[in-house]
Protein backbone atom coordinates (compact mmCIF):
# COMPACT_ATOMS: atom_id res chain seq x y z
CA UNK A 1 0.00 0.00 0.00
CA UNK A 2 2.83 2.35 0.91
CA UNK A 3 4.65 1.58 -2.33
CA UNK A 4 1.47 2.27 -4.29
CA UNK A 5 0.96 5.65 -2.56
CA UNK A 6 4.58 6.57 -3.22
CA UNK A 7 4.11 5.76 -6.91
CA UNK A 8 1.00 7.92 -7.10
CA UNK A 9 2.80 10.85 -5.45
CA UNK A 10 5.68 10.47 -7.91
CA UNK A 11 3.30 10.57 -10.87
CA UNK A 12 1.51 13.61 -9.47
CA UNK A 13 4.81 15.42 -8.92
CA UNK A 14 5.88 14.83 -12.52
CA UNK A 15 2.46 15.87 -13.83
CA UNK A 16 2.55 19.18 -11.99
CA UNK A 17 5.88 20.33 -13.37
CA UNK A 18 5.17 22.92 -16.07
CA UNK A 19 6.56 22.26 -19.53
CA UNK A 20 5.94 25.88 -20.46
CA UNK A 21 4.55 29.08 -19.04
CA UNK A 22 1.62 30.78 -20.74
CA UNK A 23 0.80 34.38 -19.94
CA UNK A 24 -2.77 35.33 -20.81
CA UNK A 25 -4.42 38.69 -20.50
CA UNK A 26 -6.14 41.51 -22.29
CA UNK A 27 -4.13 44.15 -24.10
CA UNK A 28 -2.47 46.57 -21.70
CA UNK A 29 -2.30 44.21 -18.70
CA UNK A 30 1.48 43.80 -18.78
CA UNK A 31 2.01 40.39 -20.39
CA UNK A 32 5.29 41.42 -22.01
CA UNK A 33 6.57 42.94 -18.76
CA UNK A 34 5.94 39.75 -16.78
CA UNK A 35 7.33 37.54 -19.55
CA UNK A 36 10.60 39.50 -19.58
CA UNK A 37 10.91 39.44 -15.79
CA UNK A 38 10.33 35.68 -15.63
CA UNK A 39 12.57 35.06 -18.61
CA UNK A 40 15.45 36.93 -16.99
CA UNK A 41 15.14 35.17 -13.66
CA UNK A 42 14.56 31.67 -15.03
CA UNK A 43 16.79 31.86 -18.11
CA UNK A 44 13.82 31.33 -20.41
CA UNK A 45 13.03 32.69 -23.86
CA UNK A 46 9.88 34.36 -25.10
CA UNK A 47 7.60 33.49 -27.98
CA UNK A 48 5.16 36.25 -28.91
CA UNK A 49 1.90 34.88 -30.26
CA UNK A 50 0.35 38.22 -31.17
CA UNK A 51 -1.25 37.79 -34.58
CA UNK A 52 -0.25 41.29 -35.75
CA UNK A 53 3.28 41.43 -34.33
CA UNK A 54 4.46 38.69 -36.69
CA UNK A 55 4.45 41.28 -39.52
CA UNK A 56 7.10 43.87 -40.33
CA UNK A 57 5.99 47.43 -39.68
CA UNK A 58 3.51 49.27 -37.45
CA UNK A 59 5.70 48.66 -34.41
CA UNK A 60 3.98 51.38 -32.37
CA UNK A 61 0.39 50.56 -33.21
CA UNK A 62 0.88 46.84 -32.56
CA UNK A 63 2.78 47.64 -29.33
CA UNK A 64 5.85 45.53 -30.10
CA UNK A 65 8.52 45.24 -27.45
CA UNK A 66 11.34 47.72 -27.94
CA UNK A 67 14.91 46.88 -28.86
CA UNK A 68 15.91 47.56 -25.25
CA UNK A 69 13.31 45.09 -23.97
CA UNK A 70 14.41 42.43 -26.46
CA UNK A 71 17.96 42.86 -25.21
CA UNK A 72 16.83 41.92 -21.71
CA UNK A 73 15.41 38.57 -22.83
CA UNK A 74 15.48 36.80 -26.17
CA UNK A 75 12.23 37.09 -28.16
CA UNK A 76 10.92 35.06 -31.09
CA UNK A 77 8.15 35.34 -33.68
CA UNK A 78 8.21 39.12 -34.05
CA UNK A 79 8.52 41.05 -37.35
CA UNK A 80 9.36 38.12 -39.62
CA UNK A 81 6.46 38.19 -42.12
CA UNK A 82 6.19 40.63 -45.03
CA UNK A 83 3.19 42.96 -44.46
CA UNK A 84 1.92 42.31 -47.99
CA UNK A 85 1.56 38.58 -47.23
CA UNK A 86 -2.06 37.78 -46.42
CA UNK A 87 -1.79 33.99 -46.38
CA UNK A 88 0.17 33.50 -43.15
CA UNK A 89 -2.02 31.21 -41.05
CA UNK A 90 -2.12 29.84 -37.53
CA UNK A 91 -0.80 26.56 -38.93
CA UNK A 92 2.28 28.39 -40.24
CA UNK A 93 2.71 29.99 -36.84
CA UNK A 94 2.34 26.68 -35.02
CA UNK A 95 4.91 24.90 -37.17
CA UNK A 96 7.51 27.60 -36.59
CA UNK A 97 6.75 27.96 -32.88
CA UNK A 98 6.93 24.23 -32.19
CA UNK A 99 10.25 23.98 -33.99
CA UNK A 100 11.59 26.77 -31.78
CA UNK A 101 10.33 25.19 -28.57
CA UNK A 102 11.96 21.86 -29.39
CA UNK A 103 15.39 23.56 -29.57
CA UNK A 104 15.07 25.84 -26.56
CA UNK A 105 17.78 25.34 -23.91
CA UNK A 106 16.81 23.83 -20.59
CA UNK A 107 16.33 26.23 -17.72
CA UNK A 108 18.48 26.15 -14.64
CA UNK A 109 15.50 25.70 -12.31
CA UNK A 110 15.76 22.16 -10.86
CA UNK A 111 13.66 19.56 -12.68
CA UNK A 112 11.88 22.22 -14.66
CA UNK A 113 11.86 22.32 -18.43
CA UNK A 114 10.73 25.89 -18.86
CA UNK A 115 9.84 27.90 -21.89
CA UNK A 116 8.27 31.31 -21.37
CA UNK A 117 5.38 31.93 -23.73
CA UNK A 118 3.64 35.30 -24.06
CA UNK A 119 0.56 34.42 -26.02
CA UNK A 120 -3.18 33.80 -26.30
CA UNK A 121 -2.80 30.08 -25.62
CA UNK A 122 -3.44 28.64 -29.06
CA UNK A 123 -0.39 26.43 -28.53
CA UNK A 124 -2.19 24.60 -25.75
CA UNK A 125 -4.91 23.22 -27.99
CA UNK A 126 -3.05 22.47 -31.22
CA UNK A 127 -3.29 18.76 -31.88
CA UNK A 128 -2.14 16.39 -34.63
CA UNK A 129 -5.58 15.56 -35.92
CA UNK A 130 -6.06 16.73 -39.49
CA UNK A 131 -2.91 18.80 -39.93
CA UNK A 132 -1.39 17.27 -43.05
CA UNK A 133 2.29 17.36 -43.96
CA UNK A 134 2.15 19.04 -47.35
CA UNK A 135 4.87 20.20 -49.68
CA UNK A 136 5.22 23.94 -50.14
CA UNK A 137 3.45 23.93 -53.57
CA UNK A 138 0.47 22.12 -52.06
CA UNK A 139 0.35 24.58 -49.15
CA UNK A 140 0.28 27.50 -51.57
CA UNK A 141 -2.46 25.79 -53.59
CA UNK A 142 -4.49 25.26 -50.42
CA UNK A 143 -4.20 28.93 -49.46
CA UNK A 144 -5.10 30.03 -52.98
CA UNK A 145 -8.21 27.86 -52.98
CA UNK A 146 -9.21 29.14 -49.54
CA UNK A 147 -8.95 32.76 -50.68
CA UNK A 148 -11.01 31.95 -53.76
CA UNK A 149 -13.70 30.36 -51.62
CA UNK A 150 -13.77 33.31 -49.24
CA UNK A 151 -14.63 35.59 -52.17
CA UNK A 152 -17.94 33.73 -52.57
CA UNK A 153 -21.05 34.66 -50.65
CA UNK A 154 -21.49 33.26 -47.18
CA UNK A 155 -24.88 31.75 -47.97
CA UNK A 156 -23.53 29.86 -51.01
CA UNK A 157 -20.49 28.59 -49.06
CA UNK A 158 -22.71 27.47 -46.20
CA UNK A 159 -25.01 25.64 -48.62
CA UNK A 160 -22.02 23.75 -50.07
CA UNK A 161 -20.84 22.78 -46.59
CA UNK A 162 -24.33 21.65 -45.63
CA UNK A 163 -24.26 19.20 -48.54
CA UNK A 164 -20.95 17.54 -47.59
CA UNK A 165 -20.80 18.08 -43.81
CA UNK A 166 -24.18 19.03 -42.27
CA UNK A 167 -22.89 18.57 -38.72
CA UNK A 168 -20.14 21.15 -39.25
CA UNK A 169 -22.48 23.49 -41.10
CA UNK A 170 -24.85 23.43 -38.13
CA UNK A 171 -22.05 24.78 -35.93
CA UNK A 172 -20.97 27.64 -38.21
CA UNK A 173 -22.71 30.91 -38.93
CA UNK A 174 -23.30 31.60 -42.66
CA UNK A 175 -21.32 34.84 -42.30
CA UNK A 176 -18.23 33.04 -40.97
CA UNK A 177 -16.74 32.52 -44.42
CA UNK A 178 -13.21 31.78 -43.21
CA UNK A 179 -14.19 28.79 -41.08
CA UNK A 180 -16.67 27.52 -43.67
CA UNK A 181 -13.99 27.70 -46.40
CA UNK A 182 -11.54 25.85 -44.15
CA UNK A 183 -14.04 23.06 -43.50
CA UNK A 184 -14.81 22.75 -47.20
CA UNK A 185 -11.10 22.49 -48.02
CA UNK A 186 -10.54 19.84 -45.34
CA UNK A 187 -13.23 17.76 -47.01
CA UNK A 188 -11.90 18.43 -50.52
CA UNK A 189 -8.33 17.52 -49.61
CA UNK A 190 -9.07 14.43 -47.50
CA UNK A 191 -12.47 13.21 -48.66
CA UNK A 192 -13.53 13.11 -45.00
CA UNK A 193 -15.88 15.65 -43.37
CA UNK A 194 -14.22 18.11 -41.00
CA UNK A 195 -16.63 17.10 -38.21
CA UNK A 196 -15.40 13.48 -38.46
CA UNK A 197 -11.80 14.63 -38.04
CA UNK A 198 -12.75 16.63 -34.95
CA UNK A 199 -14.67 13.71 -33.49
CA UNK A 200 -11.66 11.45 -33.99
CA UNK A 201 -9.45 14.08 -32.37
CA UNK A 202 -11.61 14.21 -29.26
CA UNK A 203 -11.52 10.44 -29.02
CA UNK A 204 -7.74 10.27 -28.79
CA UNK A 205 -6.12 9.31 -25.50
CA UNK A 206 -6.01 12.45 -23.39
CA UNK A 207 -8.70 14.12 -25.50
CA UNK A 208 -12.19 15.11 -24.48
CA UNK A 209 -15.21 17.19 -25.32
CA UNK A 210 -13.05 20.30 -25.69
CA UNK A 211 -10.67 18.80 -28.22
CA UNK A 212 -7.75 16.45 -28.61
CA UNK A 213 -4.87 15.87 -26.19
CA UNK A 214 -2.68 18.81 -25.28
CA UNK A 215 0.80 18.96 -26.76
CA UNK A 216 2.03 20.23 -23.39
CA UNK A 217 -0.18 18.61 -20.77
CA UNK A 218 1.23 20.42 -17.74
CA UNK A 219 1.62 24.14 -18.56
CA UNK A 220 1.59 26.88 -15.96
CA UNK A 221 -0.98 29.46 -17.06
CA UNK A 222 -1.03 32.97 -15.64
CA UNK A 223 -4.01 35.22 -16.33
CA UNK A 224 -3.36 38.92 -15.83
CA UNK A 225 -6.67 40.58 -15.06
CA UNK A 226 -7.67 44.05 -13.98
CA UNK A 227 -10.62 46.13 -12.93
CA UNK A 228 -11.99 47.33 -16.27
CA UNK A 229 -12.35 50.97 -15.24
CA UNK A 230 -8.67 51.07 -14.29
CA UNK A 231 -7.70 49.22 -17.47
CA UNK A 232 -9.73 51.61 -19.64
CA UNK A 233 -7.80 54.58 -18.22
CA UNK A 234 -4.52 52.73 -18.77
CA UNK A 235 -5.43 51.93 -22.38
CA UNK A 236 -6.42 55.53 -23.13
CA UNK A 237 -3.13 56.69 -21.65
CA UNK A 238 -1.27 54.16 -23.78
CA UNK A 239 -2.86 55.56 -26.93
CA UNK A 240 -1.68 59.02 -25.90
CA UNK A 241 1.82 57.59 -25.36
CA UNK A 242 1.70 56.04 -28.85
CA UNK A 243 0.83 59.42 -30.32
CA UNK A 244 3.75 61.01 -28.48
CA UNK A 245 6.04 58.23 -29.77
CA UNK A 246 5.22 59.03 -33.40
CA UNK A 247 2.12 56.98 -34.17
CA UNK A 248 0.79 59.35 -36.84
CA UNK A 249 4.08 59.41 -38.76
CA UNK A 250 4.23 55.60 -38.58
CA UNK A 251 0.72 55.31 -40.01
CA UNK A 252 1.46 57.77 -42.82
CA UNK A 253 4.66 55.98 -43.78
CA UNK A 254 3.04 52.55 -43.75
CA UNK A 255 0.08 53.82 -45.77
CA UNK A 256 2.31 55.27 -48.48
CA UNK A 257 4.52 52.16 -48.66
CA UNK A 258 1.88 49.45 -48.54
CA UNK A 259 -1.68 50.72 -48.65
CA UNK A 260 -2.05 53.79 -50.88
CA UNK A 261 -1.86 51.86 -54.15
CA UNK A 262 -4.40 49.33 -52.85
CA UNK A 263 -6.85 52.11 -52.03
CA UNK A 264 -6.42 53.62 -55.51
CA UNK A 265 -7.00 50.22 -57.12
CA UNK A 266 -10.05 49.58 -54.93
CA UNK A 267 -8.33 46.44 -53.65
CA UNK A 268 -7.82 47.49 -50.05
CA UNK A 269 -8.73 44.77 -47.53
CA UNK A 270 -8.96 45.43 -43.82
CA UNK A 271 -9.87 41.80 -43.09
CA UNK A 272 -6.53 40.08 -43.68
CA UNK A 273 -2.96 40.37 -42.48
CA UNK A 274 -1.53 43.37 -40.72
CA UNK A 275 -4.06 45.68 -42.37
CA UNK A 276 -6.67 44.49 -39.88
CA UNK A 277 -4.61 45.85 -36.96
CA UNK A 278 -6.62 47.86 -34.50
CA UNK A 279 -5.55 51.44 -35.11
CA UNK A 280 -4.72 51.31 -38.80
CA UNK A 281 -8.20 51.06 -40.29
CA UNK A 282 -9.52 53.56 -37.71
CA UNK A 283 -7.38 56.23 -39.40
CA UNK A 284 -8.49 55.34 -42.94
CA UNK A 285 -10.39 58.60 -43.50
CA UNK A 286 -7.45 60.63 -42.21
CA UNK A 287 -4.87 58.79 -44.30
CA UNK A 288 -6.93 58.97 -47.50
CA UNK A 289 -8.12 62.57 -47.11
CA UNK A 290 -8.01 64.62 -50.30
CA UNK A 291 -5.18 67.12 -50.75
CA UNK A 292 -7.77 69.89 -50.96
CA UNK A 293 -8.80 69.29 -47.32
CA UNK A 294 -8.09 72.18 -44.99
CA UNK A 295 -5.90 71.76 -41.93
CA UNK A 296 -8.97 72.11 -39.75
CA UNK A 297 -10.65 69.21 -41.59
CA UNK A 298 -7.51 67.08 -41.31
CA UNK A 299 -7.29 67.76 -37.58
CA UNK A 300 -10.93 66.72 -37.19
CA UNK A 301 -10.27 63.45 -39.05
CA UNK A 302 -7.17 62.86 -36.94
CA UNK A 303 -9.09 63.39 -33.70
CA UNK A 304 -11.83 61.10 -35.00
CA UNK A 305 -9.23 58.39 -35.61
CA UNK A 306 -7.74 58.80 -32.14
CA UNK A 307 -11.14 58.45 -30.48
CA UNK A 308 -12.01 55.44 -32.66
CA UNK A 309 -8.71 53.82 -31.70
CA UNK A 310 -9.40 54.26 -28.00
CA UNK A 311 -12.90 52.83 -28.31
CA UNK A 312 -11.74 49.86 -30.39
CA UNK A 313 -8.92 49.10 -27.94
CA UNK A 314 -11.26 49.10 -24.95
CA UNK A 315 -13.71 46.84 -26.76
CA UNK A 316 -10.90 44.49 -27.77
CA UNK A 317 -9.77 44.16 -24.15
CA UNK A 318 -13.25 43.07 -23.13
CA UNK A 319 -13.40 40.58 -25.98
CA UNK A 320 -10.05 39.09 -24.92
CA UNK A 321 -11.18 38.68 -21.31
CA UNK A 322 -14.40 37.04 -22.47
CA UNK A 323 -12.33 34.61 -24.56
CA UNK A 324 -10.21 33.62 -21.55
CA UNK A 325 -13.26 33.09 -19.35
CA UNK A 326 -15.11 31.01 -21.93
CA UNK A 327 -12.06 29.07 -23.08
CA UNK A 328 -10.67 28.15 -19.67
CA UNK A 329 -12.69 29.24 -16.66
CA UNK A 330 -16.18 28.15 -17.68
CA UNK A 331 -15.26 24.82 -19.23
CA UNK A 332 -15.23 21.80 -16.96
CA UNK A 333 -13.03 18.87 -17.83
CA UNK A 334 -9.86 17.08 -16.81
CA UNK A 335 -7.98 18.38 -19.84
CA UNK A 336 -8.39 22.04 -18.87
CA UNK A 337 -5.15 23.15 -17.15
CA UNK A 338 -5.34 25.25 -13.95
CA UNK A 339 -5.21 29.01 -14.45
CA UNK A 340 -3.59 31.25 -11.83
CA UNK A 341 -5.02 34.75 -11.69
CA UNK A 342 -2.78 37.75 -11.03
CA UNK A 343 -4.43 41.11 -10.32
CA UNK A 344 -2.75 43.96 -12.23
CA UNK A 345 -5.26 46.67 -11.33
CA UNK A 346 -2.74 48.62 -9.25
CA UNK A 347 0.53 48.63 -11.20
CA UNK A 348 2.28 50.44 -8.35
CA UNK A 349 2.05 47.12 -6.44
CA UNK A 350 3.33 45.04 -9.37
CA UNK A 351 6.03 43.16 -7.48
CA UNK A 352 3.72 42.40 -4.57
CA UNK A 353 0.62 41.31 -6.53
CA UNK A 354 2.11 39.97 -9.77
CA UNK A 355 5.81 39.10 -9.89
CA UNK A 356 6.29 37.59 -6.43
CA UNK A 357 3.17 35.38 -6.56
CA UNK A 358 4.15 34.19 -10.06
CA UNK A 359 7.63 33.20 -8.90
CA UNK A 360 6.21 31.44 -5.83
CA UNK A 361 3.78 29.44 -7.95
CA UNK A 362 6.56 28.38 -10.31
CA UNK A 363 8.83 27.43 -7.42
CA UNK A 364 6.13 25.19 -5.94
CA UNK A 365 5.33 23.54 -9.26
CA UNK A 366 9.01 22.90 -9.94
CA UNK A 367 9.15 20.87 -6.70
CA UNK A 368 5.94 19.01 -7.47
CA UNK A 369 4.14 20.85 -4.67
CA UNK A 370 0.73 22.48 -4.71
CA UNK A 371 1.10 26.28 -4.88
CA UNK A 372 -0.05 28.32 -1.90
CA UNK A 373 -1.94 30.52 -4.38
CA UNK A 374 -5.08 28.74 -5.55
CA UNK A 375 -5.94 28.57 -9.22
CA UNK A 376 -9.00 30.41 -10.50
CA UNK A 377 -11.98 28.24 -9.68
CA UNK A 378 -14.02 26.82 -12.52
CA UNK A 379 -17.74 27.29 -12.02
CA UNK A 380 -18.91 23.69 -12.16
CA UNK A 381 -22.52 24.81 -12.41
CA UNK A 382 -21.81 26.66 -15.64
CA UNK A 383 -23.30 24.63 -18.48
CA UNK A 384 -20.99 23.81 -21.34
CA UNK A 385 -21.71 25.95 -24.35
CA UNK A 386 -22.88 23.81 -27.25
CA UNK A 387 -22.62 25.23 -30.75
CA UNK A 388 -26.28 24.59 -31.49
CA UNK A 389 -27.90 26.50 -34.32
CA UNK A 390 -30.81 28.80 -33.48
CA UNK A 391 -32.96 31.01 -35.69
CA UNK A 392 -34.89 34.05 -34.51
CA UNK A 393 -37.42 35.04 -37.17
CA UNK A 394 -38.50 38.08 -35.18
CA UNK A 395 -35.02 39.60 -35.27
CA UNK A 396 -34.05 37.95 -38.57
CA UNK A 397 -30.92 36.46 -37.01
CA UNK A 398 -29.09 33.14 -36.99
CA UNK A 399 -27.27 32.49 -33.73
CA UNK A 400 -24.70 29.78 -33.05
CA UNK A 401 -24.23 28.65 -29.45
CA UNK A 402 -26.59 28.02 -26.54
CA UNK A 403 -25.06 30.73 -24.35
CA UNK A 404 -25.25 33.25 -27.19
CA UNK A 405 -28.86 32.21 -27.76
CA UNK A 406 -29.75 32.71 -24.09
CA UNK A 407 -28.13 36.15 -24.19
CA UNK A 408 -30.09 37.05 -27.33
CA UNK A 409 -33.42 36.10 -25.73
CA UNK A 410 -32.66 38.55 -22.91
CA UNK A 411 -31.48 41.36 -25.19
CA UNK A 412 -33.37 44.64 -25.54
CA UNK A 413 -33.60 44.24 -29.31
CA UNK A 414 -35.29 40.85 -29.05
CA UNK A 415 -37.64 41.96 -26.30
CA UNK A 416 -38.61 44.96 -28.43
CA UNK A 417 -39.63 42.65 -31.28
CA UNK A 418 -41.55 40.39 -28.89
CA UNK A 419 -43.57 43.34 -27.58
CA UNK A 420 -44.14 44.56 -31.13
CA UNK A 421 -45.48 41.13 -32.14
CA UNK A 422 -47.81 41.05 -29.13
CA UNK A 423 -49.16 44.48 -30.01
CA UNK A 424 -49.75 43.44 -33.62
CA UNK A 425 -51.59 40.30 -32.52
CA UNK A 426 -53.81 42.30 -30.17
CA UNK A 427 -54.88 44.63 -32.95
CA UNK A 428 -56.04 41.62 -34.91
CA UNK A 429 -53.71 42.20 -37.87
CA UNK A 430 -52.83 38.53 -37.80
CA UNK A 431 -55.08 35.50 -37.53
CA UNK A 432 -55.89 34.58 -33.97
CA UNK A 433 -53.70 31.97 -32.38
CA UNK A 434 -53.27 30.57 -28.86
CA UNK A 435 -51.66 33.16 -26.62
CA UNK A 436 -48.08 32.71 -25.55
CA UNK A 437 -46.75 33.92 -22.25
CA UNK A 438 -43.27 35.21 -23.03
CA UNK A 439 -41.26 36.92 -20.32
CA UNK A 440 -37.96 38.73 -20.77
CA UNK A 441 -35.97 35.78 -19.45
CA UNK A 442 -37.97 32.97 -21.05
CA UNK A 443 -36.12 30.23 -22.89
CA UNK A 444 -38.39 30.33 -25.97
CA UNK A 445 -39.82 33.36 -27.72
CA UNK A 446 -42.33 33.73 -30.55
CA UNK A 447 -40.72 33.53 -33.94
CA UNK A 448 -37.62 31.73 -32.67
CA UNK A 449 -36.32 28.29 -33.35
CA UNK A 450 -33.78 26.26 -31.46
CA UNK A 451 -33.41 23.31 -29.10
CA UNK A 452 -36.20 23.18 -26.52
CA UNK A 453 -38.37 20.70 -24.65
CA UNK A 454 -41.92 21.79 -25.34
CA UNK A 455 -43.08 24.70 -27.47
CA UNK A 456 -46.36 26.60 -27.49
CA UNK A 457 -48.48 26.13 -30.65
CA UNK A 458 -47.56 29.56 -32.02
CA UNK A 459 -43.84 29.01 -31.67
CA UNK A 460 -41.90 27.46 -34.54
CA UNK A 461 -39.19 25.27 -33.09
CA UNK A 462 -36.43 23.38 -34.87
CA UNK A 463 -33.66 21.32 -33.36
CA UNK A 464 -30.08 21.99 -34.38
CA UNK A 465 -28.39 19.15 -36.18
CA UNK A 466 -26.25 17.19 -33.73
CA UNK A 467 -25.11 19.92 -31.32
CA UNK A 468 -21.36 19.63 -30.80
CA UNK A 469 -19.41 21.24 -28.00
CA UNK A 470 -17.08 23.98 -29.20
TrEMBL record:
It holds the Pfam family IPPT. Residues 418-470 are annotated as: Disordered. Residues 429-446 have a biased composition (Low complexity). Keywords: ATP-binding, Cytoplasm, Membrane, Metal-binding, Mitochondrion, Nucleotide-binding, Phosphoprotein, Transferase, Transit peptide, Transmembrane, Transmembrane helix, tRNA processing, Zinc, Zinc-finger. It is an enzyme of class 2 (transferase). Belongs to the IPP transferase family. Catalyzes the transfer of a dimethylallyl group onto the adenine at position 37 of both cytosolic and mitochondrial tRNAs, leading to the formation of N6-(dimethylallyl)adenosine (i6A37). Mediates modification of a limited subset of tRNAs: tRNA(Ser)(AGA), tRNA(Ser)(CGA), tRNA(Ser)(UGA), as well as partial modification of the selenocysteine tRNA(Ser)(UCA). TRIT1 is therefore required for selenoprotein expression. This is tRNA dimethylallyltransferase.
Amino acid sequence: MAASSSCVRSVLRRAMRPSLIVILGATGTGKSKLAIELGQRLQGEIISADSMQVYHGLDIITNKVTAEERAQCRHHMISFVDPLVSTFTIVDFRNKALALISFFPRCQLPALDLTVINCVAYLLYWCLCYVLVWSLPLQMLYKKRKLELEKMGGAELHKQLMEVDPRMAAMLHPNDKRKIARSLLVHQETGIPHSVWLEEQRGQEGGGGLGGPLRYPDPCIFWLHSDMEALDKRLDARVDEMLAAGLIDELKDFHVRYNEKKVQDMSQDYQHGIFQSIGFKEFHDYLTAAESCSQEERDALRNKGVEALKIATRRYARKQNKWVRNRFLKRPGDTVPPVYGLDVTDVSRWEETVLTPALQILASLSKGEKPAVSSVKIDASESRNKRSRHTCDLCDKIIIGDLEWAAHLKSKKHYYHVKKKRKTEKTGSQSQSPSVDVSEDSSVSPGCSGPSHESPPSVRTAHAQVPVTS
